[in-house]
Write a structure and sequence with these properties.
single chain; two-stranded antiparallel sheet; 3 helices
Length: 171
């Protein structure tokens, strides 16, 4: 599936679209940090992110530092499996990343994310009303979180609720 979004790198914005050209791949590999902030924000009919994830993440783009607001208001998004490809080794901000994604139910595919550097998870799953089981996140290390709160607000958590204070001490 074709996609188009904007990513930022330090002081510049890069428009990317699939398929990525060899020149674009080289340009993306040369940057020191990548922000995917608001990349798909308010794409209310976005369902399939396989094309984006395969295209972008299969090129060793490991310096992603910001995914805040990335999928905010993507009401139709259900399948997070493509995000298992996301390298989170340098990720520091995922605030409001999936907020108002009403159809997300399964977090298993993001359970292996390295969250040891994360500082901001404010409202990450805010208003994900179909989300009931957060037990897949039991291995997340959120000990460095400085800005939490509202991570699971308005989620009907019925499995893994004991994890809420560990993942989000501010909640």
């Amino acid at each position: 599936m074709a996609f188009m979004c904007t990513i930022t790198s330090k002081n510049s914005e890069i428009e990317i679209a699939s398929p990525l050209s060899p020149e674009m791949i080289q340009k993306l590999k040369s940057v020191t940090s990548i922000s995917l902030e608001s990349a798909f924000r308010k794409h209310r009919n976005l369902k399939d992110i396989w094309g984006f994830c395969k295209c972008l993440f299969n090129h060793d783009l490991t310096r992603i530092v910001n995914t805040s607001l990335m999928f905010q208001d993507c009401y139709s998004l259900t399948d997070l499996r493509p995000l298992s490809l996301l390298s989170t080794d340098y990720l520091i901000d995922s605030s409001l990343m999936f907020s108002w994604c009403f159809r997300i139910k399964d977090l298993q595919s993001i359970s292996a994310w390295n969250m040891s550097h994360i500082r901001n998870i404010y409202g990450m799953f805010l208003n994900c009303t179909s989300l009931h089981d957060i037990s897949p996140l039991s291995f997340w290390n959120t000990s460095r979180v400085k800005n939490g709160g509202y991570v699971f607000t308005n989620c009907d958590i019925t499995c893994g609720e004991e994890l809420i204070p560990l993942i989000d001490p501010a909640d």
